[in-house]
Each structure stands twice: as structure tokens, then as C-alpha cells.
Amino acid sequence: MPKTAQQTIRLGNIDVTVTRKRVSRVNLRVRRDGSVAVSAPARVPLSQVRAFVESREDWVRSARAQALARQAARAQTLRDGGTTRLLGKTLALSVEKDLPSGSAPYALRTTGAVVAHVPKDDASPARVDLALQSLWRATLEEALPPLFERYERQMGVRCTGVRLRRMTSRWGSCNVRTGRITLNLELACHPVSSVESVVAHELCHLLEPSHNARFHALMDGFCPWWRDAKAELNSLPPTRPVLP
Fold first, then answer.
1. pLDDT, tens digit (0-9, with 9 covering 90-100), for 65-110
2. For residues 149-186, b (16+ Cβ closer than 10 Å) or e, as one string?
3. Using one digit for the tens of pLDDT, what is the confidence trace for 128-173?
4. Would you say 59 and 45 are in contact if contact means Cβ atoms under 8 Å apart?
5. SS3 of 95, please?
6. CB-based contacts of 35: which residues, under 8 Å, 6+ apart?
7. 242 near 75, Cβ under 8 Å?
8. How many Cβ atoms sit within 10 Å of the Cβ of residue 221?
9. Fewer CB near the last or first residue (10 Å), C or N of the chain?
10. pTM given for the model
């Protein structure tokens, strides 16, 4: 069986995705969107995986209910009269259904508010979420260049490119082989100081690939407030896109 082969088992009315990986034991988790996933070594029979999942059914159902409740609460804010965050500030959200059907949604910041423009026939939370992502991208594309320029100069490094995309478990990543850095679009919701700490973090990996004592010393030297920024980012972890 390929190391990334997937199977599905049922836990009552819940689908559980089982992915075979090079791991040492069976791992079970409930994602923020309520989906349930297991990673398991190829050598462990599916019957054993099923027994393990069934033994944790109460926990799975509780964790899944909490995740779905958080998703529903977030979807409720992605409506006209809701709220959103931009560069650490909580702003009123207005939804304008003024685009032709099939048009790409977008959002703009006004004084003290964000206006999401969506198709006339679809003002769903998922569509508003897409509109906000366009604003996040524009915000970061303006904020990031001077940050990269400053830290690259201070560290004596240079990244080969910056990619922005939605990430559901990390704020950023650095390919130390190619020098390419990827940043989470949702960083645009956080204060500039937190965005700056992630830029410094990923660039530091061009000097030290691992998170060892040397890496922490480099961060202390280049970005002394990184621990406060990490706490701020952890207080509002990345979200998953709202489902249609």
C-alpha cells in the first residue's frame, strides 16, 4: 500500500479519513472544520485502527461538536452587520450584494469598517470569506516588502520569493533549499508586530534551519518581542475557509 493511501471508516454518522504514513503509531485528530482524520502506519490493520477510533468515540464527538460550533459562530460574523479583523483591529463588516452573478468577490477597507462586495445571488459566509481573502492579500502585499527589505539587510540573507496563501495550521514556512517563503494570508488579521515576527522567523531559517538554541538566539537578537507576538498569534490561530 502506498505510504499516502487513504481509506475511510465510519464512526456512526461520522466519516473518518485514514491516511497511511510513515509514522510510528496511530494518531487521531479532529480538525477545526469538524472533519476527523487518522494517520496510521501501513503495518497496522484497518480493524485495529477502527478499534482505536471507536475507543475514543466520546472524545471525537465532543471535539467535533466544539469545532462545528466554532465554525458556525465564525460563519455568523461573516454577514452584513458582523465583524472582522484587519492588522489587529476589529472592524464592522458590511456586505454589499452588488456584483454580477459569478463575479469574484472582493473587500475594501473604509473608515472604521470593511465592505465586502459579493454577487447579488450569493452573499453566503463562504463568499464573504473569499472577499476578505482578497483584502488580506492586498494588505500584506503592501505591508510585507519593507519588512522583508529591512530584515534581509539586517540578517544578510535574501529569500528568492514570497508566496501568500491560506494555511490552516501554520503562519509561515521556509524552503531553506530554494530560499522561498510562504506566508499565511490570515496574518493580515494580526498586528504588524506579529506579522513582522513571522517574517523574521522565516528569514532566520535561512541562517538556521532548525528550531534549536541558535535559532532562538537569532530571533532574540533580530526580533526581541517574538515571544509576545507568538502568544498573540496563538490566541487567534488560523481558521479554515467557511464551507459553502
1. 988 888 788 788 899 999 999 999 999 999 999 999 999 999 999 9
2. eebeeebeeebeebebeebeeebbebbeeeeebbbbbb
3. 999 999 999 999 999 999 999 999 999 999 999 999 999 988 999 9
4. no
5. strand
6. 15, 17
7. yes
8. 12
9. N
10. 0.78
